[in-house]
Amino acid sequence: MNLFNQDLDKNPANHQPLTPLTFLERAAAVMPDHTAIIHGTERIAYRDFYRRACQLASALVQRGFGSGDTVSVLLPNVPPMLEAHHGVPMAGAVIHAINTRLDAATIAFQLDHAGASMLIVDREFLDLAEAALALTEVEPTLVIYDDPQHPHSAAGQLPAETYESLLAAGDPDFDWALPADEWDAISIGYTSGTTGNPKGVVSHHRGAYLLAQGNALIANMPRHSVYLWTLPMFHCNGWCFPWTLSVVFGTHVCLRQVRAEPIWEAIHAHQVTHLCGAPPVMALLVSSEAGAGQQLDHAVDFFTAAAPPPERVLADMEQAGFTVTQLYGLTETYGPAVVNEWHAEWDGLDIEARTRQKARQGVRYLPLEALSVMDPDAMTPVPKDGETIGEVMFRGNVVMKGYFRNPKATEEAFRGGWFRSGDLGVIHPDGYIQLKDRSKDIIISGGENISSIEIEDVLYKHPAVAVAAVVAMPHARWGETPCAFVECLAGVEVDAEELTRHCRDNLAGYKIPRHFVFESIPRTATGKIQKNELRKRVN
Fold first, then answer.
1. Among 86, 104, 444, 496, which lies 20 to 30 A Cα-Cα from 431?
2. Mean pLDDT over residues 499-510, rounded?
């Protein structure tokens, strides 16, 4: 018997379930008058942010919503999105944030699959919401948010109530309860579904608590940080930053649309200290007409994830004054679970060497217990040589509970005791991982594996290229061969012959794209290039 467990049981005095909801409660008690949210001309103090979240929770409980119920939200980055990330789980329910760029059929699938009891929708997306509801089996209560900063006129055909009337029925002093178990679900979010119906990723309170705190530490966020919402909150619950800011009594600056001019205006006007986004957001900041020649007058940290950022874009961001940190994760890991922890001695490297270091994804996030690149069949780590490709795998408290109502997919994802990401990468001698491709994006030409990311990075080094995406196209002799889609910088032209010469100078012959397509490249709402759409164009 372990004597340190004898007569030393868990009880309410020494053991409480972890939940990020307590961060807002604390911030409202400690800094009630500090500005929590900026939205246009609107300013919301922590006291009022907390009270409105309590009102939402109270109103939901009055309607009979609670444990096991799903409240879906179709909202841009506006204050009610932040309120829903707190008020919905305060009621014991699960928040389901929907990508506003999805089609009606996909939204309908998600609403049915998640069993939505309520749908809160911004009026701008009311027509989309009603088109989705026309296809659903569930009949959620429809609630419409009218943004006073950005009014819209969509009238709608279905019975609905307003978001403010819903809140008015709630008690701002509502005595909400902690989850019965920190393993209880706090959210459900859906994967992109590029190879079939999207999978519902279920996250728990404990993981959200740990990642939210981890964000504050990893991002080195001081007290009263100012965070600009360039990352959609519907994407992995905004990487848990809706809960993180309360940890440091920070200020959320809402942004409905990601455009260069309002981003730069907000950075200067509100002295923004932190923002996140995919590499195309960085390219937008430094390559657009609005961003040309812009320089920061204070320190700003930019955290990027999704596809590995091109080295040229990283260099341009550094020259504009941003400190860029590479993150990596998935919906299944609550957002970022890997960080490029920066070594002081790397500051002395030349800019090309620094950007090569920054292009690596890095090491495990603070709240992640284990990270590895493994042979997916043998389940053994690959050599730390920066060359041997394996599958990136995760293990820890910031890995999802599993896929909702999909035990087969859950079992496969956790096969071997690790979460299998489907991403391919290498481990460098210093233990830092670097992505090489998604398993579905690797190009197999004549039996040789070709990384689309490697080719894209070479294309980005050409001064005329703004955006590049490489996919496999069928080839009669080699099976597959690289095809490059290219967007040029404004006012600059380049042809396939020139890009072929550029690639020949930087790549092995078999890796050179055999075909170039010059056209607009489709992206998701989070800035990820939709390679599934590109593959359709060449197959």
1. 444
2. 90
